[in-house]
Amino acid sequence: MRKKVLCVCIVLLLVGIYYACQRQDYDAPEKLFLKKLLAIETAVPPIWPGFSSAKAPLILRFGEEGALLVGLKPKAVCGFHPVKEFFPDISKAPKNSFFKPGFFEPWLQTFNIESYKSCAGEVHFSNYNLLQGALCSDVLFHEYFHSYQKCNFKWHYGRQLFPSEFSPEQAAVAYIEQILLSKALRSTGQDWKYYARAFNALRLYRKSLPDPYSFNQVEDALEAIEGTALYFESRTRDFDMETPSVIQSNRKKGIFPTQADLHISGQLLMTEFVPGIMMYWRQYNTGAAQGLLMDRVGIDWKIGVQNGKSIFSFFSKAFSVLKAEQSKLVDAVKSEYDYKTLVSVANKTMFPRKIPFIGNDYSGRIIIQICGNLSVELKHHPRVSKVYRFKDGSMAEPFQNLKIKQKNVFNLDINRFGALADLKKNSLGKKCRRLEISLLFPLSRFSIDKTNCTQTSTGFICKDLAFYGPDSSSHFYVPLKLTEGEKTLTLEVLP
Amino acid sequence: MKIIARLISLIFIFICFHITFVHAAYKMPPKVKSLIDNLLLLENKDTIWSGYNPLAKPVALHVKGVGSYLVGAKTAPKDCFQVEGFSRPVYFFRNKAADNIRSDFSAFYHTAEAGNVFLYNYNTRDLLRAELLIVHETFHLFQHSVFKNASSHSSPLHKGKSFLSEYKYGFQLIWEWWKQFSFFEKVNTPLKLDINDISIAYVENKLLAQALLDKKNYKTLVGEFVRVRNYRRKKLSSRLLEYELKQEKVEGTAEYVCWKSLAEHFSPIIAENFHAGVLLSPQFLTPGIRYYSPGAVQGFLLDRLGVQWKIRVQNGEDIFSVMRESFPPDKNTRDVNTLLRELYSNWVKKALTVQVQLLEAKKERAMIRIKKYSDWRLVFYRNFECKGYSTTCYDEQIDLGDGNYYQENCHNELQCEGFNLSIDKPIIDNARKITILLGNQPRFKISIDDVKLSSVPITATFKKLYLKTEGITLNMSLKGSITINGKTISVKPFGKVSFEKRKR
Fold it and tell me: Fewer C-beta within 10 Å: chain B N or C terminus?
């Protein structure tokens, strides 16, 4: 009998061991995030000097499990507690790391990290569940770097309306530049420096070409904003794979091409010769590539870029070419990469981009009804001066960037292309207005914080309200009535 | 007098409509004209792939709000205008129904005016991408009729240009990859992801990329590719090998044809650079798409050497077997050990491992979350076909293993004939129904047949339904029923509504 019991126990034990071995324990995502953030903050040399959660406080929600707060000491009422209380096996975490268990209200679905007024203070906010992973881009850390830029970069953060046209010569040269940067990234020995200098010569040449659509200006801005974010993302991805000491020792050895070099090199080659990509997405990779190449020669470029200088201004000095040499290099690469054919291809493919509001319709509209004096600042795009006539009969003036303010009442900031109609509305004998803001994206892209709202039969009555969306945010500090339609969001500030 | 006035206004309206319609037809956007010119050139070109004609089936290039330009039709469609200036008739018709199509294309799209066409949604997209997509997809139609043993395993992925499209594209990549990793384990055709295999395949990719970009030494580099691939394939399971052979044949050749046509119409340098870039970027190692570029690039390299390979592949041979025969390793070829030592990336192997762990951890959490979920749900039965279905996810969806997929962080939009549904809440999705997780105390706005109700009825039928709560808007003008049971609300459209069939 005893033997049988012993046998059964052994069998059960073996089965238990088998299942225990089959089951893998995974680190909680909260821990993975904190570990990576700490590694970035303490990296020597720093990935980006000055970057720390303290300079870009963040609330990161992990589904219904809870939310992390980093970079800010919360007010007691918020329910955040030091992370060690929840994750005792974390040996080290970034200073001011807190956790609040349970569902974090409100349900914001933004994937852009917008400035958000939480009970803990002014922070950025994101869901952890952004597409991420080692092989794909790490969207979370890319966006997190943008939130750092918002507060710490002199460059204006925002999605500018990129030029609608591009001269075929500019396009052809810009394409050859990509090939040269890509070659420099994957070359070793002295070759890579040759390609870096050839790139420099070619870009200087392009900058001397007529630039009727202000592409050069947009290129500098995009390389400084998106190029550095991609650079940061590429560099920090190493922390998913290696320990900080291994990364440091690899960097000291100066072995290249690194995996980040190869990745960006590939992306540069893949940059399609079409207007949308060449005028916008291309600059992600050209900016990051210049950063990676300057790291090889130990140039201190980051603080300068943060302070408003272009990446290329540093690159150009780091890989300088003599005037006499410049034209030779330009002629050589133009001939090697079939410049003439590229110009003729550009003539066929670089059609002017279609003007927004296809079918004379907007995707979403915000209507604000308000009385009193407002400050309305709208920046027009240099070449868009027409008035839009929408199919519902309304008209509006296009803008590239819109800021509207009324002190202690509300502010609204949209860093995207849109259209505004500022209509007079006389009621109660006061100077009242109806502002119609037409958008190129649907209202579903907004996250509306209705924490202080009560639902009524006709909408919501809110004590205050905030909403966040793609490069846009708005805060109302006074009571208002909110009505949500299919394509319109009406906000009526109550007297 | 009144009658005459009415008649005059009717005639006036008709003339206005006619003028606008004709004007739209004649004011053809230049990119539409260029695309049609290129498709017509391909029609008579046998150099890209003998027998393939992108216009074997009529292609409708649709511009939202304007209309469709039809090319390749044997007869003129109803209510159309012929657009002059082409070597073959090109017709313009309004095709209003296609304004609601959100997908890039539909290979089998039924129009009232022109019957079954290949519909391409042109909108703001660029000429090159349009040509690539149309040629790639119409080549699949050609493969199905001509290739021996060819059927596609997965639908091709296409990247848009907006930031959201990038997300969506990225999501699709990871999703395809994730499917390969574990989902096949639970159905009849298990395919096990092999991280070692993918890591060695990345060495092959690097060699192919180098060969493509180095016209002087390409033969040696391809010989090295052949060596590494022979080495890897010896270790590959028969199922994965079978999958690889088929994918390279089906997707690789379709990718070859579309980029070859682009190289001929524009410039070979763009096509070669693009594929070299894909091969160097580890993000394209995701199994669903990792065979596209290697397949296409082997075709480019065989062309460079002047090998007649296409008819052999069409008749059932593997592209790589032609490569092996055409690029025997020479005395300059490095051996496998040297190649692995110089080109193998530990980083990529670790990255693959980390990604598996990350996805497993997410899946584990999702399972726990769903098991304990006891709040309100809205169940929407999918008794319909809907072309206007779009999903934008900020994270990958999780397969729950029973035909259900959990999407925690997605925006879903169904814009179909008879109803619109917009969802910004976590959902459990399957072929029969969408279960929307509403949270603890959802507040509903509801009206049935235009009558506002104070709460959701226990059971009711409707001709029209409007239901709104935080994160959900449902607008239906179809017959159906709504019921509430505990905390579950069910909405069922009546019968099996197939809009495709109904239109016919």
Answer: N
